[in-house]
Amino acid sequence: MQIELFIDNNNVDQDHPNLKHPLYQINSASPQPFVKFLGILLDPDLSFKIHISHIDKQISKGLYFLRTSKNLFSQFCLLSIYYTLIHSYLTYGITIWSSTNPTNFNKIISKQKAAVRIFVIANSMPTLNLYLKNSKFYLSKI
Questions:
Q1: Sequence-ordered alpha helix ranges (H) in the chain
Q2: Of 61, 75, 111, 136, which residue has the fewest beta carbons closer than 10 angstroms?
Q3: What are the phi and psi torsion angles at 133 (to 5°)?
Q4: DSSP β-bridge partners for residue 42
């Protein structure tokens, strides 16, 4: 409202390149496909697909860092990196977004298994699953 009044009262050229920035766009109030509330992306259906894809991207970045640094750091450091870059995204707001469908949830579970596989050195699935069941940081379907 005040931006419109300023532009009208001061004869500002609306075609000026500095005014092309989205912050200064007056009629750019198109509806968003989601709302971000306390770091959780809420879509209109409450399916949490957008939030899950955001978490998936963040976990992928953490997985890349774990893979590239697994030969440089100790198990303790790798575990700290896991908790910092991956587990924090997995657990934040889980009581809200865990009601998503199993297909979305399984994407995240598989990424978590890949992260654990990096520092467990368990190439066989039964060993990995046994480790995950006995582990205190495994994320499972609630």
A1: 2-9, 49-69, 75-82, 88-91, 94-97, 102-120, 125-134
A2: 136
A3: -70, -30
A4: 35
Residue 141 binned pLDDT confidence (cut-offs 50, 70, 90)? very low
Distance separating alpha carbons of residues 67 and 118, to the nearest angstrom: 7
List, in sequence order, every residue forming a beta bridge with 40; answer none if it has no partner.
37
In the 8-state DSSP scheme, what is residue 86? I
SS3 41: strand
The pTM score is 0.64
Of 126, 135, 22, 141, give the one whose Cα is nearest residue 82.
135
List, for residues 70-126, the tens digit of each pLDDT value: 888 887 888 888 889 998 998 898 888 888 888 888 888 888 888 888 877 644 455
User: Which burial class, exposed, middle or buried, applies to 2 when counting CB atoms under 10 A from its CB (0-12, 13-18, 19+)?
Assistant: exposed
Q: b/e per residue, 50-65, with b = 16+ CB within 10 A?
A: bbbebbeebbeebbee
Partners of residue 35 on adjacent β-strands: 42
Question: Do you know the residue count of the chain?
Answer: 142
Given a cut of 70, whether residue 19 has pLDDT beyond it is no
